[in-house]
Design brief:
The structure is a single chain. The protein is an alpha/beta fold and 550 residues long. It contains 18 helices and 20 strands. It starts with 19 loop residues before the first strand and ends with a strand. Bound molecules: flavin-adenine dinucleotide. Residues 26-32, 49-52, 57-58, 60, 62, 67, 69-71, 76, 122-123, 153-158, 201, 400, 403-404, 440, 450-451, 455 line the site of flavin-adenine dinucleotide. Flavin-adenine dinucleotide binds at residues 26-32, 49-52, 57-58, 60, 62, 67, 69-71, 76, 122-123, 153-158, 201, 400, 403-404, 440, 450-451, 455.
Length: 550
């Protein structure tokens, strides 16, 4: 895979050299790209700083085999450019990563975005200078720049985490993290491969590696509830239909809680007979995408008894698909109900465990003791490996923020402010950090969304706000303490209604591989995208109520 960079590592700025922009954006994924386009077209001077060598964010970094959408491709692309919608043709209903990266590179070409992006530029600090009213950023090799407004577009799943297993550095075979997968082709043929992790990424990787590896050993700490993706190529007829109905597709997304094409069923699970319930679950299980998760009875994610019926249904499906009954039991989660964590969508994932070259190590009964030069030692024995794949995920939502030393008024550290859980206004600004906007940040509807739909809303809101503030001569915006407190309380209230918040997961800020991330704190916004949009519109219509402007 070629490196898509157009700029090499920028040189460190000479002492005293600190170019000034109206706006600095950190990150050139879908959020940063669209934000650059919108602000630049309104005449703002904008510079984007991106750690990677090209555009695309998630789809630039996650090149592991099997990486693909769980959102329908045609509901995921940008909606703002009718010409782009007609030009671009998705080849599959759930496109694989190379295609999505090609799409985003095409967008960057079409909008000529790269000229305002510095690649290979990992921002390590951002400090607000109160006297000058500017943000100064510094990147990894000492370069600097400043701007009146700082917008983070650093991504909810962009800070990869490694497991805290002794001996990781001792392994002498090939080792890869899925979130920083190399650009060169990686072959599994004839190799003894170990995969650590069975979340959404692990599931996609395992399905693919099992096809060619001599042996595949899956190290599973806790199983997840998976459901079939049912991917298929898009036929010429479907292509025509999709292109003719983008308005309806995006309208449907706008109306739904998470901006997917799937809308919750208005019925409750117990309102129907057992036979009707079973038939409905069968129907959803046979359909493509997230319908079984978010297009289900409206109470399956909030009512335990309702959730139990669905959980039981999925458990029976797993038992039916895995030949060895004892193995099937190991693949069935016991500590949470279906859908209360991110649901991995799969293609013959469970059937992989019927293959003779695949073996599951259940780490709950046989934990890893260490990694050594030749493989992984568990309590029960040694697994000789040629390759280890870490599918151990991300320090989600707040991780990419924590990796930058962000200082607001009086040197206040964002990392410290959020240590006990994020506090935000609309998931877009933080008290004590004037002129900082956090696209797809914690407490923002975008974190629990068919994300590009919410990215467009976030970016449109910030763009309109900056344009209006410029017209009004306002140079500083920061939420009031009251607005922040009220929004944070509201976010937590929306979470309390859901079973999510009773389970350890990245939705709840839990990551056992990251110090300080062992206490549950709700990172998402569960009030739904329509309610979130309504609130943002109302704030804007009232002169940006809740923000102190000067
Ligand atoms: C494997 C995978 C599959 C996914 N599938 C779906 C899906 O089907 N549907 C869906 O809605 N969402 C999905 N997501 C979520 C996905 O992250 C979003 O859809 C979307 O791509 C987020 O765009 P973004 O621009 O906000 O963030 P990102 O795409 O993560 O981009 C953030 C960028 O910021 C850069 N950055 C971070 N920190 C710094 C720094 N300090 N200095 C400079 N640059 C920095 C990163 O390098 C990155 O390029 C998936 C995520 C993953 C990992």
């Amino acid at each position: 895979m070629p490196d898509t960079s157009t700029a090499s590592v920028p040189a460190a700025s000479p002492p005293g050299d600190c170019p000034h922009y109206d706006v600095i954006i950190i990150g050139a994924g879908m959020s940063g790209m669209y934000q650059l386009h919108r602000l630049r077209s309104l005449g703002f001077t904008v510079r984007v700083f991106e750690a990677g060598g090209g555009v695309g964010g998630t789809w630039y970094w996650n090149r592991y085999p099997g990486a693909r959408f769980d959102s329908e491709s045609w509901s995921y692309g940008y909606s703002f450019d009718p010409e782009l919608l007609q030009q671009w043709e998705w080849s599959e209903h759930f496109a694989p990563q190379p295609e999505t990266l090609r799409y985003l590179e095409h967008v960057a070409d079409k909008l000529d975005l790269r000229r305002d992006i510095s690649f290979n530029c990992r921002v390590r600090s951002a400090r607000f200078d109160e006297g000058a009213g500017v943000w100064r950023i510094e990147w990894a090799n000492g370069g600097r720049a400043q701007a009146t407004w700082l917008i983070t577009a650093v991504g909810p799943l962009s800070a990869p985490t490694m497991p805290t297993i002794p001996g990781v550095a001792d392994f002498r075979g090939e080792a890869y993290h899925t979130g920083t997968w190399p650009h060169h082709p990686v072959s599994f043929a004839g190799k003894r491969v170990g995969v650590i992790g069975t979340g959404a990424t692990g599931v996609q990787t395992i399905q693919e590696v099992a096809k060619t590896a001599a042996t595949l050993t899956v190290f599973q700490r806790s199983p997840n509830w998976c459901a079939p993706l049912h991917n298929a190529p898009i036929t010429a007829e479907e292509q025509q239909r999709i292109k003719a109905s983008y308005d309806e597709i995006f309208e449907r997304c706008r109306e739904s809680h998470g901006c997917f094409i799937h809308k919750a069923d208005p019925r409750k699970a117990m309102e129907v007979t057992e036979a009707e319930r079973e038939a409905f679950y069968e129907k959803l299980y046979a359909e493509p995408g997230f319908g079984i998760w978010i297009g289900n009875f409206r109470d399956v994610l909030s009512d335990r008894a309702a959730n139990d019926t669905l959980t039981d249904f999925i458990a029976r499906k797993i038992r039916a698909r895995v030949n060895d009954p004892a193995l099937a039991e190991k693949l069935i989660p016991r500590n949470h109900g279906f859908g209360t964590r991110r649901v991995p969508l799969e293609t013959r994932y469970y059937e992989v465990y019927n293959q003779p070259n695949v073996r599951l190590v259940d780490l709950r009964e046989d934990p890893i003791e260490r990694i050594d030069a030749t493989g992984i030692r568990t309590r029960a024995g040694h697994h000789d490996l040629d390759m280890i794949i870490y599918a151990t995920g991300f320090d989600a939502v707040t991780g990419a923020f924590d990796r930058i030393d962000i200082r607001g008024r009086g040197g206040l550290s964002l990392r410290k402010k959020w240590a006990g859980g994020p506090r935000t206004y609309l998931g877009l600004q933080v008290e004590g950090f004037p002129n900082l906007f956090t696209l797809v940040g914690p407490h923002n509807s975008a974190t629990f969304c068919n994300i590009p739909r919410c990215i467009e809303q976030n970016v449109d809101f910030v763009t309109a706000m900056l344009a209006e503030l410029r017209d009004r001569g306002v140079r500083r915006a920061e939420p009031t303490p009251q607005a922040e407190a009220e929004w944070t309380a509201h976010v937590n209230e929306t979470g309390e209604k859901l079973l999510f918040t009773q389970v350890d997961s990245w939705f709840m800020g839990i990551n056992s591989n990251v110090p300080g991330k062992q206490t549950r704190t709700f990172l998402l916004y569960a009030g739904g995208a329509p309610a979130y949009r309504e609130k943002c519109d109302e704030v804007a219509a009232n002169g940006y109520r809740g923000f102190a402007l000067s």
